[in-house]
Amino acid sequence: MHLPTLALSGLVIKLSAAQYVLEDNYASATFFSEFTFFTGSDPTAGYVTYLDQSAAQSDGLINTNNGLVHIGVDDTNIASGSGRNSVRIMSNKVYNHGLFILDLAHMPGGICGTWPAFWMIGPNWPSEGEIDIIEGVNDNANNAMTLHTSNGCTIDNSGAFTGTLSTSNCYIDAPGQSSNAGCDIQDQNTQSYGTNFNSIGGGVYATEWTSAEINIWFFPRGTTPADITNGNPDPTTWGEPVAQFQGGCDIDSHFQNQQLIFDTTFCGQWAGAVWGDSSSCSALASSCQDYVQNNPNAFANAFWLINSLKVYQNSGASAVVSHDPNPDFQMHKNETCPLRTTPLAMGGGLPRRRRRQLRSN
Q1: What are the distances in angstroms from CA 248 to CA 153, 158, 168, 213, 252?
Q2: 47: DSSP letter
Q3: N or C: which end of the chain has fewer CB within 10 A?
């Protein structure tokens, strides 16, 4: 968050970062009671059957053993019907702005056929927007962070962030982009997703959503800032985020009434569409669905293991007053840095035709 400094007639008024205070702690003991289990057909055309809470618990797909939240998939049976059994949950609470901090020990990604995501969505899609915080398919090693909106929202490279901007127009039907590509930033860190993420014991994702911008940080295990650990998060001390979404976009008009979602689907409009782009995956079976259907043991590690999920809200801005030796009126703001990385290979351009809007059960 960039904090402006105003100087007028020798008086400097600097807007300081407001303190974030804890609003919601999704503790393991009550975690699943704070979410609704989606049981409808997968909006992304995945080869998946979403179970209700009772069935998911009976089948061993969910538990809160040892104070950790486990959300998995069926790794025992040959799949049939609409697809492999899995779980998709949505928070009962709706948010407008906030700091969302997810500490993950393990994620389902990095496995051929999978398409897991931790994301947020408004009830009127795409008018109220979608924020994808963790997402990837098949054997991807880099996390994709994406916004999806109605027309009139674009981002640019003027922000100081460490990821690579792949597409800049958040509009789902933007000309010159694949359908529903959105505005996408790819993490350069191969520990940010999937197998490598799990091998280091996971890490922490922090997403700050304000009227000015949406920022996402990733902290690999062992690098989490002390203020997060101590429950007093201060994003102004964390350095550049991996992704910063700002530019030609009125954030408040495009993102409203967001709910948190965890899900793991299979194949579908992304993982299935790019099955042939991965030589390691395509060597396993002729199609994504064939592999997912007939190889249950392959998905033993396709699970979320959540240490904690906390939501903080801004307690309000404060003003710090001092004197400026230069009395001329001026407006200062943080300078931004150009992107210093080269774009990731996107497999020749992924056909990200993702329709994540909700459907009634």
Answers
A1: 6, 11, 10, 11, 12
A2: S
A3: C
Condensed to tens digits (0 to 9), the pLDDT of residues 290-319 reads 999 999 999 999 999 999 999 999 987 433
Closest CA to 68 of 120, 111, 26: 26
Please answer whether residues 329 and 8 qualify as being in contact, where contact means their C-beta atoms are separated by less than 8 angstroms: yes
For residue 252, how many other CB atoms are within 10 A of its CB? 13
Among 103-117, 121-135, 170-184, 342-356, the minimum mean pLDDT is found in 342-356
The token pair at 358 is 């909700």
Tokens found for residue 33: 């009671």
Q: What is the mean pLDDT of residues 230-249?
A: 97
pLDDT tens digits for 13-70? 334 456 999 999 999 999 999 999 999 999 999 999 999 999 999 999 999 999 999 9
Residue 11 has pLDDT above 80, yes or no: no
Beta pairing, strands 84-86 & 48-50: parallel
Cβ atoms of residues 166 and 184 within 8 Å: yes
pLDDT for the residue 17: 52
- Rounded Cα–Cα distance for residues 255 and 150 (Å): 10
Active site residue: 130, 208, 213, 240, which one? 130
pLDDT given for residue 169 in this prediction: 98
**% of the chain beyond a pLDDT of 90:** 81
Instruction: Give the CA dihedral 189, 193, 196, 201, nearest 10 degrees.
Output: 110
Q: Is 208 a catalytic residue?
A: no
Which residues, in sequence order, are CB contacts of 241 under 8 Å at separation 6+?
Answer: 161, 162, 208, 215, 216, 217
In 3D space, the residue among 166, 124, 175, 185 whose CA is nearest the CA of residue 149 turns out to be 124
- Which pair of tokens denotes residue 62? 């969910």
Annotated catalytic residue 130:
yes
From the list 128, 135, 208, 213, the catalytic residue is: 135
Q: How do strand 114-121 and strand 20-25 relate by DSSP bridges?
A: unpaired
